[in-house]
Design brief:
This protein is an alpha+beta fold. The protein has three helices and five strands, in the order αββββααβ. Strands 1, 2, 3, 4 and 5 form a five-stranded antiparallel β-sheet that branches. The longest helix has 18 residues. It is rod-shaped. The two termini are 13 Å apart.
Length: 166
């Protein structure tokens, strides 16, 4: 069984959300253990939504999403590391991490804790704020041409290890 922890998400442990399930974590950990290595799997999901206004009007509203996984393996006191955005190929991720083992003389120390989570405004709220900003500026001076960009960037991080510890 895989243990999930999400640093920076209010202490609530949960597996990845956007299209990913626990199976990639399990598979990567199983493959690394089969090679005699201890492993840590790091998952990252990012969603970015820029809201752009130009010449007093909403110009663009687009959401961009990215997810990826990184693997740190430790075998005989040496570390290897690899990452991917293709979660459908866990074998290649493990192979790549194992191939880098000769790069490092000793195992790397634990990584520091991730920053805490923040609550961001919704996309609808950003659109409303932009429209209100433009209206207020045009009330002040109707000749203004206002351009502004608001952007939210959120991420989810999850960690699974062969030892079951976060």
């Amino acid at each position: 069984m895989v243990s999930f922890s999400c640093r920076g998400c209010g202490g609530r442990a949960r597996p990845p959300r956007v299209g990913a399930r626990a199976e990639p974590f399990d598979k990567v950990l199983e493959l690394a253990q089969a090679q005699g290595a201890e492993a840590e799997v790091f998952y990252l999901e990012q969603v970015e939504t820029p809201v752009e206004f130009e010449t007093n009007r909403l110009k663009a509203l687009q959401t961009k999403a990215l997810q990826g996984m990184a693997l740190r393996v430790i075998h005989q006191g040496r570390s290897g590391f690899a990452s991917t955005t293709d979660l459908s190929r866990p074998e290649q991720l493990v192979e790549a991490a194992l191939q880098t083992i000769t790069t490092f003389a000793t195992a790397l120390p634990d990584l520091p804790a991730l920053p805490t989570a923040h609550t961001f405004p919704t996309t609808a709220r950003l659109v409303t704020q932009g429209q209100e900003l433009i209206a207020n500026l045009l009330d002040f001076n109707p000749d203004f041409l206002v351009s502004a960009t608001f952007k939210t960037h959120t991420s989810t991080r999850a960690i699974a290890t062969t030892s079951g510890a976060p």
